[in-house]
Amino acid sequence: MYHKSVLLTPSVDALGIEDRRNGVFVDATFGGGGHSREILARLGEGGRLIVFDQDEDALKNVPEDKRITKIRSNFRFLENYIRYLGVGAVDGVIADLGVSSHQFDTAERGFSYRFDAQLDMRMNAMADLTAAQVVENYSVGDLAKILGDYGEVEGAGRVASAIASAREKRKIETTGDLKDALARFFTPQTERKFLGKVFQALRIEVNGEMRALEDLLQGCLNTLSDKGRLSVITYHSLEDRIVKNFLRSGKAAGTFEILAKKPILPSEEETEANPRSRSAKLRIGERTKN
Predict the structure, then answer these.
(1) Are 198 and 111 contained in the same domain?
(2) What is the H or E stretch that residue 51 is in?
(3) For a tag on the chain, would you pick the N or C end, based on fewer CB atoms within 10 A?
(4) Which residue range(s) make up the domain with 54?
């Protein structure tokens, strides 16, 4: 399986498709296509689904359906493409911000410390910046900031200094090289948590994830129709904070109504069946036109 969709039913329910079966909806993170297929199952014959993914592997999963328009691009450009396609407004946007299981489990993509592979981590293989370039070229101060801000790594300064010391001796080109450089910071019991934070921080930097998310949300604000829905699944506190604050500021400005006061979490059954869903949070907003 390419990817097991998280919070599938509640996230698609949140779009309110039953009231707009012939409307226009956007899946900003196609991935394995689970959310898109569920949307298509609910759409009418006159409905339209626009799917985004910057990963060429993901777009190979797009089903043949005349209602689908597929776009290979970062979702930060959602507003530009909606305008380019001549769509006046969209009725709902769904975004599952997690890394796909395919990306984690494909060793050569370099997303996981479980495999010894090139430090890549690019979601878009055509992009220039790789994780290897970050660890090799960034200053100690910049590395510390990334590790602290994006990974919430304890002792980020010491970890950054250790990377700098290791790269003076030999290049850090693979996930194994990075693990060796940081071996003194974790034990077999703490390896998963520590390296998970480090790799998350590098991945976010390589893909500009926080800036892209802010652009996506602004694009949703500008393109959603009256009563249009926004359904966003996050996986770590940085993402969740951005989405939560966006919806709160929208509520204060009269541009969004928050439909779920607290984030919707996976059920125990889902987390048991799919452990990668454990940290997921779903937030839902509805656009209100002033």
Answers:
(1) yes
(2) strand 48-52
(3) C
(4) 8-101+209-287
